[in-house]
């Protein structure tokens, strides 16, 4: 607020202090005092939100879903009949992709199923993908894709990987098309864009588990429900990227289209979209990666594939099998990422061009088709021979056992220290704070940073968690997320700074970040659980590993993009290297670092829900329990609480970026 900037500076212990920060120092001191006071000092309604005051929103949502699936009608059809019909239609492309890549054409079900026609043989698919990759980006991509698919075949992950690939391809296609259409509507109608923006915020911050519940109720158990949940989760980035890419088209091209008499449709399809294609492909890349991550999580409601293998291994604590399937997911993710990047036109590509490229692809596809027909005559060649398969499962099991035997004591010391001196004190502090005080502080912060509108928004979001009866799980979520994000920033920011100073370290950091971002959330938990067992410490490690990448990447980007003129000015005034870093680089990079903090928080919240599998007692556990009991109301309400935590932090950070000097 503008009043704050007028406050004078004072002197404390001989040093000048900006008095506009004094109210927040007082609030922190009061918070510590309130947390340390005996609980008997406060009225009971202050300690715990009264049951009689709670809003039965979860019951209302469950009752609405029951009415929707049992009594509601759309003309002559019930809503349940409509969703089942829609499920049947959406299942057709999914079944087709699965039959081509994984299962083949089957007659019958279960153990009695008979294969009428095999899937595309593993080596035929490798030939076709290698030819297409070489055409797009040259021999390097072709070799990488070939080695990746060979890994899946040799280590016995081919069928599961192809089931996952089929789901990802269909879901990514629907998400990209839907996101492109909604993005174009946002560009054409500012009102539509403003109305859609809060829905996109909720969709991006809502945990995936919350999507699975209504999809399970409406569309039943199976891969279609998982695919629809995946599409809903993956659409928002494509919408936002489409808006940015289209708005970034130069005005000269728009004017040229108008001068040549282009209609609105011609302007869109012949000028705007081709010009914005590189930016749009960034969105497609994000959609593919999000689709892969959600498909893994959606294995809980019947998606199958590698996600089901990882989930089963996690439940059995099968470290070898879980990591083997997890590595297969990572390989598949890397291949999809590189292939999606290759779809963007590149004039520097080293592969064949023109008619040669078309001939190469056509020849490879024809050869793959002939091999597919040959597999129908000799079904044995369609699958990689079992006798030639390898397994890394025993190696991973032995490695974890060796670590447990030789490093159990130091690992246990680290775990105990963190629990006793960091995690538990912060948890007790958060749970001891009276809920009205927390809501008041959040509202006051909104008023201070952005005025009455922001104050009402964040205050209502914060109060919602108490009103629906989920205040304690929300505070546990906030504590675990807060500690994890703080550790991620404390590790990520210095690493990002060091990476910009040493080129060799930057290359290693980029490989490290790429690896972390392609690993699905489940994979982080398997070795950590085996080393530290279940609990908050295990969850914290998983969250830090999953969320640290943006902290490193955004810090490195901000530090490396400081204008050279500022560096030269600092050097000319006699600044040392450390002074240039502290007084020039870091202040100039602060907006980028805040964006990294924002992304770190969102990733931490998404991972926090996954860590419910290792025994946390936060909102993720509430969502996971609701999924297991098919309690759609409780799952959606808990998901909204997680989303609101993310949205509150997002609003504060964005306001801080807009007013860096406030």
TrEMBL record:
<dbReference type="InterPro" id="IPR000515">
    <property type="entry name" value="MetI-like"/>
</dbReference>
<feature type="transmembrane region" description="Helical">
    <location>
        <begin position="521"/>
        <end position="548"/>
    </location>
</feature>
<feature type="transmembrane region" description="Helical">
    <location>
        <begin position="141"/>
        <end position="159"/>
    </location>
</feature>
<feature type="transmembrane region" description="Helical">
    <location>
        <begin position="478"/>
        <end position="501"/>
    </location>
</feature>
<feature type="transmembrane region" description="Helical">
    <location>
        <begin position="635"/>
        <end position="653"/>
    </location>
</feature>
<dbReference type="InterPro" id="IPR035906">
    <property type="entry name" value="MetI-like_sf"/>
</dbReference>
<keyword id="KW-0472">Membrane</keyword>
<feature type="transmembrane region" description="Helical">
    <location>
        <begin position="113"/>
        <end position="134"/>
    </location>
</feature>
<dbReference type="Pfam" id="PF00528">
    <property type="entry name" value="BPD_transp_1"/>
</dbReference>
<feature type="domain" description="ABC transmembrane type-1">
    <location>
        <begin position="474"/>
        <end position="653"/>
    </location>
</feature>
<keyword id="KW-1133">Transmembrane helix</keyword>
<feature type="transmembrane region" description="Helical">
    <location>
        <begin position="360"/>
        <end position="381"/>
    </location>
</feature>
<comment type="similarity">
    <text>Belongs to the binding-protein-dependent transport system permease family.</text>
</comment>
<keyword id="KW-0812">Transmembrane</keyword>
<keyword id="KW-0813">Transport</keyword>
<feature type="transmembrane region" description="Helical">
    <location>
        <begin position="208"/>
        <end position="235"/>
    </location>
</feature>
<protein>
    <submittedName>
        <fullName>ABC transporter permease subunit</fullName>
    </submittedName>
</protein>
<feature type="transmembrane region" description="Helical">
    <location>
        <begin position="287"/>
        <end position="311"/>
    </location>
</feature>
<feature type="domain" description="ABC transmembrane type-1">
    <location>
        <begin position="161"/>
        <end position="340"/>
    </location>
</feature>
<keyword id="KW-1003">Cell membrane</keyword>
<feature type="transmembrane region" description="Helical">
    <location>
        <begin position="454"/>
        <end position="471"/>
    </location>
</feature>
<feature type="transmembrane region" description="Helical">
    <location>
        <begin position="24"/>
        <end position="42"/>
    </location>
</feature>
<feature type="transmembrane region" description="Helical">
    <location>
        <begin position="323"/>
        <end position="340"/>
    </location>
</feature>
<feature type="transmembrane region" description="Helical">
    <location>
        <begin position="593"/>
        <end position="615"/>
    </location>
</feature>
<feature type="transmembrane region" description="Helical">
    <location>
        <begin position="165"/>
        <end position="187"/>
    </location>
</feature>
